[in-house]
Amino acid sequence: EAQVTQNPRYLITVTGKKLTVTCSQNMNHEYMSWYRQDPGLGLRQIYYSMNVEVTDKGDVPEGYKVSRKEKRNFPLILESPSPNQTSLYFCASSLFTSGTTYEQYFGPGTRLTVT
Amino acid sequence: DQQVKQNSPSLSVQEGRISILNCDYTNSMFDYFLWYKKYPAEGPTFLISISSIKDKNEDGRFTVFLNKSAKHLSLHIVPSQPGDSAVYFCAASEGRDDKIIFGKGTRLHILP
What we know:
The complex is a heterodimer.
Chain A: E1 4-7, E2 10-13, E3 19-25, E4 31-38, E5 42-51, E6 54-57, E7 65-66, E8 76-78, E9 87-94, E10 105-106, E11 110-114
Parallel strand pairs in A: 2-11
Antiparallel strand pairs in A: 1-3, 3-8, 4-5, 4-9, 5-6, 7-8, 9-10, 9-11
Chain B: E1 4-5, E2 10-14, E3 19-25, E4 32-38, E5 45-51, E6 56-59, E7 62-67, E8 72-77, E9 86-93, E10 100-102, E11 106-111
Parallel strand pairs in B: 2-11
Antiparallel strand pairs in B: 1-3, 3-8, 4-5, 4-9, 6-7, 7-8, 9-10, 9-11
């Protein structure tokens, strides 16, 4: 089954304790991305990657790191989490096509609480 | 500055009627536009998209219209069904290799 998986699905942590949220896709997609969803703010892109070893900042990259060492994996790293990073996080992937669209497949989300 | 705006936080439509969700954008360099649908406790799912070289794209009950001069796009759902009740996000990008900007979403309620 084609899917994007994220782990963990729920995480409660304390300020300053480094954490990693993993993301994996089995569709051989080139493009992967991380978003956060907050009430009243919709979805905001954190980082994206167009292929292995190619990453770029989205709209809200501060406080986050990513890496893309393999095509299928795109972990999100919070080196020193703070309470304002409490949010619902989504990973997504898509296949570049030669046509006019690209459609992202989203993971189920990771709800992170930083106290 | 919000580049993609969905000015209606919510919309209620009678089952069987047409639902029209609107989206405005400010960046004239955007050339790909997408609509996503999101149910509670799930990730968004892709619905339909349109390139700036087109002004209309249809997929079953869903049609997206793009008015470049007005920097406006809309999603039409006809006929509306109970399963269409969800949050709808409009998104835009300057190209396949650029970041994607989402609107804040519109919650659609389909009334029986």
